[in-house]
Amino acid sequence: MSGVSLLPEQRYPTVTELTSAVRALAARRPGLCALRQVGRSRAGRPLHLLSVGHARRAVLVVAGAHANEPAGGSTLLALVERVLGERGLRDGTSWHFLLCADPDGASLHVTPAPRSLLEYHLGFFRPAAQEQPEWSPAVLPPDRLPPETRALTRVIDELRPYLQVTLHGTDLGGSWVQLTKDIPGLAEPFAKSAAQLHIPVETGASDAAGWPASGPGVHVMPHAGAGAAYPSMPDDARHSTWYHAHRYGGLTAVVEVPMWASDMVDDPAPHPDPAAAIRGLAGRLLREAREVERVLVQALPRLEGVDDPLLRAARWVLELVPDLAADWTHVPPADTTMAHIGSVDAFARRLPLRAAAMLWRVLHEHHDPAAPRLEHLVETWSDAFAERFRARWVPLEHQVEHQSRTVVAAALHARAGAT
Description:
The protein has helices at 15-28, 71-85, 103-108, 117-122, 136-139, 147-159, 187-196, 274-299, 309-328, 338-365, 371-388, 396-418; strands at 33-40, 46-52, 58-62, 94-98, 163-173, 176-179, 213-215, 218-220, 251-261, 392-393. The protein has 419 residues and is of the alpha/beta class. Strands 1, 2, 3, 4, 5, 6, 7, 8, 9 and 10 form a ten-stranded mixed beta sheet that branches. A hairpin with a 2-residue loop joins strand 7 (213-215) and strand 8 (218-220).
């Protein structure tokens, strides 16, 4: 499976390039394919949906929900090619592809072919939770949801998919799957694919802390009455658009794939002293976030009147840190693995680094004298992150192949379970 065969080089496509490539594929099979606009973003950018087939039983694939996770566009293109080429995948099932859930965010994240974690972060953007299409329902009342969220939920209401798959990724780590309901049989092909492509399985993903697992790296969301592992985090997945498919008996699979891999997130050995390790990580998180916070406080008077999505996102990240660090200092379970500590370590490095990167972009644009200080932090922390985790680039074709295989396996196993 090529995944990016319609593009001139092996890199992540822009939304414009992805739309053009999908339009070309759809034009080959006009009786089978329909590309239509299903909404507009806050800035007026179109939201496009490609439908392949006409069966009522539907799979919905969503790309671009997080601007900083670019593999999804390449994977979506590969899946369209595969669904068009394999009649069995269309047997009694229609496939629908939302090309990019957040085109405004995608326009601000600038790393089509990053060569290093530093380059990735110098172009970094990820909006605050209330501006993210999938997460906004977890933090906003219904009458304040952004148009991208409303468009996505309208598509789910129309299609009533038995499976929604949303294509996500991580900068550095491993691959894992989050399910809103279990898909029996998925864990085996997921693990087999990761092993074949030398992608570690993130068995202790901090995103799914406290979730039961149906297999290594396949995490199933707890029932509605279960407490959150990190009570301070405002974005409860059970209130996101992932759960909207449950209204129609469906479920959502979130498939994560890394840009850079680290075997530190795939170590099942028990950690010898998890409580001390977590305290140390929480302390470092607070110290590094305070470094960025000091720059922000000093720069804010010079940024009076600036209402920039990068600035809003940086401030939102910094606001999360104190309570999250407090959550972490609760004594972890005695059976905490090296993989889980590795995942928390990566998360603790990510947050201040992302805040520094986005704030640097704002200050750099405004020629602020504090910009060099932040640039130094971004460089230092990016290099330390890569060195600590022995980061190795996952070839783009492997990112795409693994994510595509997992989506197809989820669709087939969920369909078997639904019949």
